[in-house]
TrEMBL record:
Organism placement in taxonomy: Eukaryota, Metazoa, Chordata, Craniata, Vertebrata
Species per Swiss-Prot/TrEMBL record: Rousettus aegyptiacus (Egyptian fruit bat)
Name this protein carries in UniProt: Peroxiredoxin-like 2A
Its job: Involved in redox regulation of the cell. Acts as an antioxidant. Inhibits TNFSF11-induced NFKB1 and JUN activation and osteoclast differentiation. May affect bone resorption and help to maintain bone mass. Acts as a negative regulator of macrophage-mediated inflammation by inhibiting macrophage production of inflammatory cytokines, probably through suppression of the MAPK signaling pathway.
Primary subcellular site in the record, as a coarse category: cytoplasm
Keywords: Antioxidant, Cytoplasm, Redox-active center
Length: 236
């Protein structure tokens, strides 16, 4: 009787070979499906660390003038509170969409006496200038990216397999907002509503994925809670 090695017998049995390939293929598809499911949960998302008023107060910001001035962030809200958007990337069409939403609140914020601001983490060519038509407030530079902390969070390429992100893409495209790919866009941003003086942080929205924008209604509700500081002369 002719002896045959296991390798040879496997090659002479096409059905075994086919079943083996099907098993490998099914395993690969199963692993891919599991990875896709897990990518669409919050299991692998880095959790934000809530900011304190003391942390925000000491952040150094710069004006975007020809001769920039450096100042402490608390100047933004010390007297009348403030709504502040930490922009992930000025050229991002999702960030521009959120900027439009926040800017739609400007008339009501003006009635309340609450200013609207934004901070960016870098200034590349005309990116900030191109962002300004979408945002109706003053913009400052946060070079040390402190408004994106205390625990800086990133979303890398996993964001592009999240269904929520794709839904956000289609939503922004539907309203006709456009953008570009200039600048760093992986460090996630957020929105703060800060009360005057030592009133504290009234709303802190941290972007959990690309295009996870704040609810404008929540921003306005928080802004209405701000109690403007009264100067000594006004008290008399």
């Amino acid at each position: 009787m002719l002896w045959m090695s296991p390798e040879m017998s496997f090659l002479q049995d096409p059905s075994s070979f086919t079943m083996g390939m099907w098993s490998i293929g099914a395993g690969a598809l199963g692993a891919a499906a599991l990875a896709l499911v897990l990518a669409n949960t919050d299991i692998f998302l880095s959790k934000p660390l809530q900011a304190t008023l003391e942390y925000l107060e000491e952040i150094d910001l710069k004006t975007l003038e020809k001769e920039p001035r450096t100042f402490k962030a608390k100047e933004l809200w010390e007297k009348n509170g403030a709504v502040i958007m930490a922009v992930r990337r000025p050229g991002c069409f999702l960030c521009r969409e959120e900027a439009v939403d926040l800017s739609s609140l400007k008339p009501k914020l003006d009635e309340l006496g609450v200013p609207l601001y934004a901070v960016v983490k870098e200034q590349i060519r005309t990116e900030v200038k191109d962002f300004q038509p979408y945002f109706k407030g003053e913009i400052f530079l946060d070079e040390k990216k402190k408004f994106y902390g205390p625990r800086r969070r990133k979303m890398m390429f996993m964001g592009f397999v999240r269904l929520g992100v794709w839904n956000n893409f289609f939503r922004a495209r539907k309203v006709g907002v456009t953008g570009n790919l200039e600048g760093e866009g992986f460090i996630l941003g957020g929105v703060f509503v800060v009360g005057s003086g030592k009133q504290g942080i009234l709303l802190e929205h941290r972007e959990k994925e690309f295009g996870d924008k704040v609810n404008p209604v929540s921003v306005l509700e928080a802004a209405r809670k701000i109690k403007p500081q009264t100067s000594a002369s006004e008290k008399k």
